[in-house]
Specification:
Yip1 family protein, 2 strands, two-stranded antiparallel sheet, transmembrane helix, elongated, membrane, Yip1_dom, mainly alpha, single chain, 9 helices
Length: 203
């Protein structure tokens, strides 16, 4: 089953990348059978914790989100994650030829690299069950660092790029990922300004 790759990437990434390359699943399978499922972890956990548990900032009062507001924000977050993985995958494929890698019409390898490298970030969504900002920050920073490692580790195997070029290619990919992240943040502000701002309620 394709979801088994999640455990493999967390325990023995080199072998798992080899398996992913041999499998060479089409983008639709990677998105629907892997990304759509794992990307749902964070929104579901965030919905439960922000509406049922709540959080505090310092010694302040307990804060929660209204159910309607939480649903809106979680859905927006979910679709932003899916679009981000898909867009990053296409950009990886588009840039691959520049670094001596393979280019495919359906961007299968690029999307696979983006999706599977994001596994630690998807799984880090479980940390949102404990809605403490400092704890969530630490977990997601650690997950992002491991995702960077996975991507650098997987580039030579999945994209067929020499290891000396893989570092530079990885830097280019991370630059694109940062641009996508900033675009998402800007998009969040714009969406909040047209009526989707969080609705906070007391605990």
């Amino acid at each position: 089953m394709i979801l088994q790759h999640a455990l493999g990437l967390m325990t023995h990434p080199d072998d798992e990348w080899e398996s992913i390359e041999k499998e060479h699943a089409p983008p639709t399978t990677v998105i629907t059978a892997y990304t759509c499922i794992l990307a749902a972890i964070a929104p579901l956990c965030a919905y439960f914790s922000t509406t049922q548990i709540g959080w505090r900032v310092g010694d302040g009062a307990l804060i929660k989100l209204s159910s309607a507001s939480a649903v809106e924000l979680c859905l927006l977050t979910y679709f932003a994650m899916l679009i981000g993985v898909f867009a990053l995958g296409w950009m990886i494929d588009w840039m691959a030829e520049t670094y001596g890698g393979k280019h495919e019409n359906n961007a299968a390898s690029g999307i696979a690299l983006a999706a599977y490298s994001s596994t630690p970030i998807f799984l880090a969504g479980l940390a949102l069950l404990y809605p403490a900002p400092w704890f969530n920050l630490l977990v997601f920073v650690a997950a992002a660092l491991y995702s960077c490692f996975l991507m650098l580790d997987g580039i030579p195997i999945v994209m067929h790029i020499e290891k000396d070029r893989a570092v530079f290619f990885g830097g280019a990919i991370l630059a694109v990922a940062l641009v996508l992240l900033v675009s998402t943040r800007v998009g969040s502000v714009l969406i909040w300004s047209v009526g989707f701002a969080p609705e906070f309620i007391g605990g």
